[in-house]
Specification:
Porin, disordered N terminus, 8-stranded antiparallel beta barrel
Length: 281
């Protein structure tokens, strides 16, 4: 049985303790007490304690930075596969994890930030925007998922004058992953048949076991007749998924509250590349 690509795929503060008034008090005592030296040493010890407190504050800042990184990991992001002319001739596809702009409707291609679904354009299913000038002259052709999915966008991007093709999946990453139970997901994919240089669409169904951190599923033939695939032994790590099944590679993530949606990218070693999105049933 032949396989397909499920593409993609393709968001501190320091507390300074002022000890001025305490130090002033320490200065008054030496002036009125014969044990000035002893009191002064005590004040020096107090200063040492202050330095210790400052170190503690520094640790607190480090912890805050860690929290910031965590927020970045759970922002709007995803993964993509970028195909060059060489890759499309049969070489291994290259998965590329990336941090998005923070806006699910934006993507950066060749250093240019574009709106995936431009203002004034709406589609429940896939939207095909493939004029040579792209949208507003950006020269990017889009095959993009529509309003059916609220927590993720996925699709295929090409640019006029470039041999590169990008399959991507991105969205608002799930932070409250279920730890027990099972769920069925159903949705769509858009894929590129490398031999035909043709883009087709199809449907995909996945069964997820949150307790075992595993999933399996299948995708239908695409609209151009490329054969469907069966997926098994899928793995869940945190809010991410992966499959390594011979030449088939899948990467993706859960999106939205309580893992409401699931999307990703798929590669079949230069034969087929796709991006997909699904919703919990």
């Amino acid at each position: 049985m032949k396989t397909k690509n499920i593409l993609l795929a393709i968001a501190i503060s320091s507390v300074l303790v002022a000890c001025g008034s305490g130090s002033s008090g320490g200065t008054t005592e030496p002036n009125t007490n014969t044990n000035t030296t002893t009191d002064t040493n005590t004040g020096t010890n107090t200063t040492t304690d202050t330095n210790t407190d400052t170190s503690t504050n520094t640790d607190t800042n480090t912890d805050t930075n860690t929290n910031t990184d965590t927020n970045t990991d759970t922002a709007t992001n995803g993964n993509a596969i970028k195909l060059t002319a060489d890759l499309k001739t049969g070489k291994k596809n290259a998965f590329s994890n990336y941090q998005s702009t923070g806006d699910m409707n934006q993507f950066v291609i060749d250093g240019q930030t574009i709106d995936l679904m431009p203002a004034g354009i709406s589609s429940g299913g896939f939207a095909l925007l493939n004029s040579a000038n792209g949208v507003n002259g950006d020269k990017v052709q889009r095959f993009i998922s529509g309003t059916k999915y609220s927590q993720t966008k996925f699709g295929i991007l090409t640019k006029t004058g470039s041999a590169d093709v990008i399959a991507f999946s991105q969205g608002t990453v799930t932070t409250d992953m279920p730890m027990t139970g099972k769920a069925d997901y159903a949705g769509d994919y858009v894929g590129l048949d490398h031999a035909k240089a043709a883009i087709g669409t199809g449907t995909i169904a996945l069964t997820v076991n949150f307790a075992d951190k595993s999933f399996s599923g299948s995708a239908s033939d695409d609209s151009n007749g490329f054969p469907g695939i069966q997926l098994s032994d899928g793995k869940i790590e945190g809010n991410k998924i992966s499959v390594n099944q011979g030449d088939i590679e899948v990467k993706g993530q859960f999106y939205g509250e309580d893992a409401a949606e699931l999307g990703g990218t798929y590669s079949n070693d230069g034969v087929y590349t796709a991006a997909f999105g699904t919703k919990k049933q």
